[in-house]
Amino acid sequence: MSDLEAVIGLEIHVQLATKTKMFCGCELSFGEEPNTHTCPVCLAHPGVLPVANEQAILYALQIGMALECEIAPRSIFHRKNYFYPDSPKAYQISQYDIPICGPGRLGDVRIHRAHLEEDAAKTIHLGESGRIHGSAHSLVDFNRGGTPLVEIVTEPDLRDAAEAAQWARLLRETVRQLGVSDVNMEEGSLRVDANVSVRPAGSEELGTKTELKNMNSFRFLQRGIEAELQRQREVVEAGGKVVQETLHFDPRSGDLTPLRSKEEAHDYRYFPEPDLVPIVPTEEMLREAREALPELPAARIARYEGEGLSADVATVLATDPETAGYFEQVAAAASAVEARVVGNWVTGELAAALRAADSETGAAGSKVTPEALASLVGLVAEKKISHGSGKTVLAALVEEGGDPAAIVEREGLAQMSSDDGELESIVAAAIAANPDAAAKIREGNNKAIGAIVGQVMRETKGRADGGEVNRLIQQQLG
Amino acid sequence: MSGLLELTVAAAAAKIAAGEISREEYFAAWMAAAAGDELNAYLFSVENAGDYQVAEGPLSGIPVAVKDIFATEGSPTTAGSKILEGYIPPYTAHAVRQLDAAGARVLGKTNMDEFAMGSSNENSAYGPVLNPWDRGRVPGGSSGGSAAVVAGGLAPCAIGTDTGGSIRQPASLCGIVGLKPTYGSISRFGMIAFASSLDQCGPLTRDVTDAALLLAALEGRDPCDSTSVGIEGGILAPGAEDLKGLRFGVPAELASDAIDAGVRAVFEATLKRIEELGGEIAEVTLPSAEHGISAYYVLAPAEASSNLARYDGVRYGMRADGDGDLIEMYETTRAEGFGPEVKRRIMLGTYALSSGYYDAYYGQAQKVRTRIAQDFAAAFAGVDFVVTPTSPSVAFGLGEKTADPLEMYLNDFFTVPMSLAGIPAISIPAGLAQPEGGGPELPVGFQIAAPAFAEQKLLEAAFALEGSIGFAASTPGIPYLNGGGEPA
Q1: Domains and their CATH numbers in chain A
Q2: What gap in Å lies between CA A212 and CA A225, rounded to an integer?
Q3: Are B223 and A51 an interchain contact pair (Cβ–Cβ within 8 Å)?
Q4: B354 found inside a domain
Q5: In this structure, is residue B81 part of a structural domain?
Q6: Contacts of A24 in chain B (CB under 8 A)
Q7: Residue B355 known to be catalytic
Q8: pTM score, whole prediction
Q9: Which ipTM did the prediction report?
Q10: Mutual orientation of helices B208-218 and B94-101 as an angle, nearest 10°?
Q11: Active-site choice (B67, B82, B109, B401)
Q12: What is the pLDDT of residues B382-436, one digit of tens each?
């Protein structure tokens, strides 16, 4: 029984950053006074009717396209009926059996569907528990009610908690780069629920799942799934059965407590929403959505890896489109240098130099123009200056901008040439000053070479090429 | 002053436009008439015209009685329900705004069956409306108040809503004209929903010309109602004098159904009139129409069960607090706030949508609905109109059918199929008949249905037929001319 495999699927709610709510003209709310962004429609006064937000439909199409979903030529809204104070109509307008986005894929995970719906209002339960049970009374803030949501449902393709969190990060980055949502987990504009089950490794059947809610960071997502997997494994290994239920994650204790069990499960009495007409995207809408799609992280990572960048550097750049754009400008200007080297400079040396200078601008906003960095990378590649001098020049560029060649000139950083014998004599002096090290090197212990190289570099103020220094030491001791 | 009340809307509007009567004087006359309501037809009427100002337009200066299902900003709107007692909407329904824009002004809000559920007006939380022809009888429903104020001389015209016959049937029982336009021709925004896929606003008037005048102001695409499209080309005053070249289809299925003898006689006589006017009578078949009532009483309650779920005591209207928890507050509020017929339909609809029953009830009913629409489409391939009696009987006695909901539902037998098909239908008074069991004669309505958005053609035919019938001129019982319902 020890070989239990985890099966994880995610349900992600994305609040769309439209101007107005899903079905009325109220502007979206960002922490304003409660119940100030409301109207008769989103308060469900008698006689009001919903009107679908076109921008939300466009955003949903973009999300669908980014997730390679099949876009439905015609989809409809349904009513999901339930009584709760966060739902003023006592039904949520959602999509049911004909969603706007059908099967798709992001990375290694298949997408089951993505659909449009409206967010619920926010309820605040006054009392110790902070939940409705046991609260003295409850307050409702309808500002959030009616905010457009896209719910993305994956297939149960994830196999461990870390993988789930990593994939969720990729999804967030993808949606963020679409520019259709703030995707802030703490503020709730991105909410990730997990469906978790275990089964004997190799089994095709799915075990009974539980649904995990309220994990408002990727770290909590991972922790929540880990805790639940552990619990399910223990239950199954003790010969018990997992009960289908919804579990609430408490970020303070890390505990999962049941929210509602299957016996209390609602019958939502779904039926087609008669107040709305079907969504039938026109060619023009589809074109507009497609044209608004930027290059998305998964595609960018693949492209950069194809250009020879390491997976890590490709991922760093793909999750930071601004820096990626900067990188591409540098690479274009430094066409003689390998893209891999440019990538390392942008994500390595430049990032470090910016950090060291407490700069918060990012590469693209810094004083280091892409042309300057390209020129600097070229100087190093052509061995006109040493790598160490390159870093010195970069630090100067971060501070004051300008032309690397001029800084090299001003600071006297041009690489020492071995032609005129100056470097050879400095090497000879360094060997003479370190007889112990020289002896070890002669005995074949090359680790000792560092002391001599260090002295040479100090003497030359870093202008010597490390490789050349090494060669000369070996030559003179050989 | 009584002379003012005898004018049709078209005649009054013409006199106002010509400066022969003043708007203030005309409104004051109707305000006084409305104040004398002895029929329980108004739930609220304007008592003080205040600073009387109206827009210029085709209805400038015309008072309109509005069914209490339309939201009116600043005035009570109850939909005939206790659960909305004291509710003052923060906005005004599109239909009412359209009337305002045409120069009309709301005279009062009319009584109705609670949430438009009923065929007799006996389901109002505020007591039944009395039929101005015989105060021991019902005016029909659910727009019973709107029909009674027009027939009883308490308003020159009114608007109501029709979900399965709620304009046409009371118009028929009160001897006036009632038009249910094509679904989508008038915005439903601000019209308190009963069954969203069926509800449609329409006029209740003394004659066909007035119905056209109101429809012209009401119809139109409204961005606040995604299902509204308006009527292409608009609506003009009808002027047809004959029915030459037009074919009127009588459903074969009509013969097998229980229609009172007096109603059947008036219907037959009206068919003869159509022929005299040059029209042709043909038989059509609507094989699925007999299942209309069954389908309707699944679909309408299903939608209602969802539409009425918002009345929970949380945000507006009545709340029965109790000292229990949230669920108890919901239950007590709804138990005390809704009447028995509304509860019956919520239960029916909730059941029909429940998982495991959805396909057998809601799904099946939708299929029937589609079949009925197809039946009409097939019929209209051969005829211009389909005609039936509007109601199988004349106005029945108060309390006569309240014990048996199914018998009450059969009132809608002739009107429900058109609602399910979404097509326009008008009821015009065609004559008088004795009720079964005897007594003074009462009005009989004649229903004409047309293809979707063929309102102009429908109004022309109804106008020509109305002229031939001469109902208003020939009948001694017109209350607004002879004091039957006129205030003392």
Answers
A1: 4-290 (no CATH), 295-411 (no CATH), 422-477 (1.10.10.410)
A2: 8
A3: yes
A4: no
A5: yes
A6: none
A7: no
A8: 0.89
A9: 0.95
A10: 110
A11: B67
A12: 999 999 999 999 999 999 998 888 888 888 999 999 999 999 999 999 999 999 9
